[in-house]
Design brief:
The protein has 152 residues and is mainly α. It has six helices and two strands, in the order E-E-H-H-H-H-H-H. A hairpin with a 2-residue loop joins strand 1 and strand 2. InterPro entries: DUF2231_TM (IPR019251).
């Protein structure tokens, strides 16, 4: 039987509940939903889906940056988290993903309803792939390293 490890307490928390894992669900859902709305627009050419994609890209990018503040506070202020390679990889992948999501939103905002461009779909797919990698690494931090988990 594996020995139980000591939990790593989050500094960005309310009543002991870490903020980052609470805040990240909506941006992730928005950015994954973006793939579906892009595909719907590609399939139907209905401008509704283009507008839905614009909003999902914006909510996903903005919400992700806000949630990342809590994660960054933990990364920079908790020594035991800083010592984890998984934490740094998670942070780097997340910044790459949020940068792409922000670019995706900005380009959509600038071009309006000029028509669907394949770059938008590719950016959405690439962002979704980076989300999957960041989620895997975040899961490792929680389940393998007990970051923000009360193990008592």
């Amino acid at each position: 039987m594996a020995e139980q490890q000591e939990s790593i307490v989050s500094r960005a928390a309310i009543a002991g509940h870490p903020l980052h894992p609470m805040m990240i669900h909506f941006p992730v859902a928005a950015l994954l939903g973006l793939v579906a709305t892009d595909f719907a627009y590609f399939w139907t050419t209905d401008p509704f889906w283009s507008r839905a994609s614009l909003w999902l890209a914006g909510v996903g990018a903005a919400g992700g940056w806000i949630a990342s503040i809590a994660g960054m506070i933990d990364l920079l202020t908790v020594r035991r988290i800083r010592q984890k390679i998984s934490a740094w990889c998670h942070a780097i992948i997340a910044v790459m993903m949020l940068s792409l999501a922000s670019l995706n939103w900005m380009l959509r905002y600038r071009h309006g309803d000029d028509g669907f461009e394949m770059w938008a779909f590719y950016l959405s797919l690439f962002t979704a792939g980076l989300i999957a990698i960041a989620a895997y690494l975040g899961g490792r931090l929680v389940y393998e390293h007990a970051v923000g988990v009360d193990v008592d």
